[in-house]
Every structure is written in C-alpha cells, then in structure tokens.
From TrEMBL:
This is Serine/threonine protein kinase. It is an enzyme of class 2 (transferase). Keywords: ATP-binding, Cell membrane, Glycoprotein, Kinase, Membrane, Nucleotide-binding, Receptor, Serine/threonine-protein kinase, Signal, Transferase, Transmembrane, Transmembrane helix. It is a single-pass type I membrane protein.
C-alpha cells in the first residue's frame, strides 16, 4: 500500500479514536438526564422553585448550597420558625409589610403563628459570605443581650435565601422621629409624632452610648460600623435600641478589623475611612456616635448641606465648629425644642461631648465607657 495512503488512514483512525474518548468523557461528566431529574426532585420545594443566580453571582458559592434548609432560634420563648412560615406570615414578603430598609435587605413586620410580632429581615442574595460564616455570625450576635441592643431572635436559610428574625420595636427609628419621614396615615401604630424633648433626646443618646460601650467591652469586641439615626430604634418608653448589624464585625487581638472596602454611611463615616484607611476600629464607632449625638440635639442631617448665615451651603460638622468658636450653643439646639428650662452650661457640656467624639483625630476621641459616665453625670 502506498505510504501516503497508509499515513492518511492512520491519521483518520487516530482522529476517530480521540473523538470517541472525548465523547465518552463528556457523557460521564454530564451524567444521565433521568438521574439528574430524580436528584432535583429530592430537593426541598422552595429550593426547587427559587431562581438560581448566574454562576459566581452568589459570593462564596462553595459554602452556600442550594439544598440548604435550616433555621435556629436564640430566644427560648420563641418556637421553631420555618422559612415556609415566614413566607406565609409576610405574604411572600409583600411590599405592603415593609417597615424599613436595612443594610443588605428589606425589613418586614409580621406576626408569627405562635403569636409574637417580629421584624423579619430578608437579606439580598449577595449580602452574606457563606452559610458557615452566616451561621457563626448570627449565633454570636444571637447571644448578645443588652437593653440598648435589638435582640436577634433567630434565622432561617433555604437555598440562597437568608432571613433574620428580630424583636419588633414599637416606635420606629430615631430618624423618623427627628424628621417625620412618614405621613400621618403611616403613624397609626405610633400615634402622631410630636417633637422629641431635650430630656428625651439625651435619654436616647445615653442609651446608644451604653449599647456601644457594652459591645466594645466584650471579651471579643464588636464594632457596629454603621451607627446612624435610621439604625436606632425607639421602644414605647423611648429607650434606644441599636439595630442593623449587617456591617458589624468581631475584632480579635488588636482593636481593629481589616476591611477591603469602606463601610458606613456618608456623613457618619470617620475621616480616616474616607482617607483610605482599611482598619475599622472602635474609634470609628465613637466618631459616628458623636455625629449622631450632634444630629439629635440640632435636628440637622449630617449628610445634607444647608444654608449658612452667609447664604452659602454648609454641612453639620463645619457649621457646629463655627458656632462653637462664637460660643453660640443655645442657637444650635433644634428649634422644635422648648428652651424655657434649658441651662446654657448644660447645653454647652453636651455639645462638647459630641464634638470630642467626632474629633477628626481618632486618638483624641474618648472610649464609649467614658462617654456614658459623662452623660450620666449630666442627667443625674
């Protein structure tokens, strides 16, 4: 046989052999379609019906399984709560039941089958790391019990869904009370919102300070990283409860947490974060608290510019520093507050605490325990 023809036949045979091998490997990897349908039918119904995200769209996919179906409660008075129950009592997470927009998810008001009214936060699919990290974080926060920190009652996880269950706080957020962000029709559960008095505002501020001091003094401290008016909830007695731990972090060893991105809300973030610092610290929380404290007693948003005396735009901290230089403390107090019984010396002392907390130099800021002590003396 001609050598050229032999070479062609040999090459053709080799091609078919290689193609056959590759086809066999592909069939093995894909598996039998009937078997795969049977495996899918074994998944929980809600997991089957949930639309899977595109590849790599869910963070840390290796730790998050579509077959996951679990829940946990941290309060002995709360019965086991399933994802199906949460779907039922929220009307499949109806927009009509939304009461807040926390970091990484919407918050719904719902009454569980066992009776208690709770706040249910459904996290966005990209708002968590993996199931193990999510579970560990929730179990840690679930053990925290303090009068000025919202209780996490439990969680549910099904497929890519992650839902947190919190105690329901009756009077909504401090932000709503300072700025009346809802209409009268939306205030049925709380009644007509009246301006907060000076004493009530200091009580709220002291409650936030106590909650932060507790978090910072834990054996493994927790930093919140997003202290702001909308994350402070008020109960029927206007006691403050720190909420929304979506950005909270435990800090080991040194009192800092390495972060690859800026966390927080504009106006409340300390200048070192905006300057590119990647170390989130307790002093960052102190700064945010200082801004919150000054916002509460002035009734001015820290993130919104307003017109100064010269007609130009000015922001809260810049305006406060100018007014302090002129000893104009009483003029900074929210105009809705009655000043009849206010002592200027007390007002000045309160402003000085807030200004010290919100100092641009983090080393100047006091620890939260010191802030609590100073506020206790003023309110004594």
């Amino acid at each position: 046989m001609d050598q050229t023809l032999q070479a062609v036949l040999a090459a053709t045979a080799s091609f078919f052999v290689v193609s056959l091998i590759l086809a066999s490997i592909l069939i093995i990897c894909r598996g039998d379609p009937k078997r795969r349908r049977n495996e899918r039918s074994a998944l929980p119904a809600r997991a089957r019906n949930f639309a899977l995200p595109e590849p790599n769209s869910a963070p840390d996919a290796a730790l998050s399984s579509i077959a996951v179906d679990e829940s946990a409660t941290f309060d002995p008075s709360l019965n086991h709560v399933s994802m199906q129950e949460l779907v039922d009592v929220t009307g499949n997470f109806s927009r009509d039941l939304i009461i807040g927009d926390g970091s990484f998810g919407l918050v719904y008001k719902a009454r569980l089958n066992s009776g208690p009214v709770v706040a249910v936060k459904k996290l966005s699919p990209d708002a968590f790391q993996g199931l193990r990290e999510f579970r560990a974080e929730m179990e840690t926060l679930g053990k925290i019990r303090h009068p000025n920190i919202v209780k996490i009652l439990g969680y549910c996880a099904t497929g890519w869904d992650r839902v947190l269950i919190y105690e329901f706080i009756e009077k909504g957020s401090l932000d709503q009370w300072l700025y009346d962000t809802s209409s009268e029709e939306d205030c049925d559960d709380m009644g007509l919102r009246l301006p907060l008095s000076w004493h009530t505002r200091l009580k709220i501020v002291r409650g936030v300070a106590k909650g932060l001091a507790f978090m910072h003094s834990l054996e493994t401290p927790i930093i919140h990283r997003d202290i702001k008016a909308s994350n402070i909830l008020l109960d029927e007695n206007f006691e403050a409860h720190i909420a929304d731990f979506g950005l909270a972090r435990r800090i080991e060893g040194s009192h800092s947490h390495v972060s690859t991105q800026v966390a927080g809300t504009m106006g409340y973030m300390p200048p070192e974060y905006l300057g590119g610092a990647t170390m989130a610290t307790m002093m960052g929380d102190v700064y945010s608290f200082g801004v919150l404290m000054l916002e509460t007693i002035t009734g001015r948003r820290p993130s919104f510019p307003f017109h100064g005396e010269d007609g130009g735009e000015v922001r809260l901290m810049e305006w406060i520093n100018k007014m302090v230089d002129q000893n104009r403390y009483m003029e900074m107090v929210d105009s809705s507050i009655s000043k009849d019984d206010l002592k200027e010396s007390i007002v000045a002392e309160v402003f000085k605490i807030g200004i010290k907390c919100a100092d641009e130099k983090c080393k100047v800021r006091p620890a939260m325990k010191e802030v609590v002590d100073n506020l206790d003396k003023i309110l004594a």
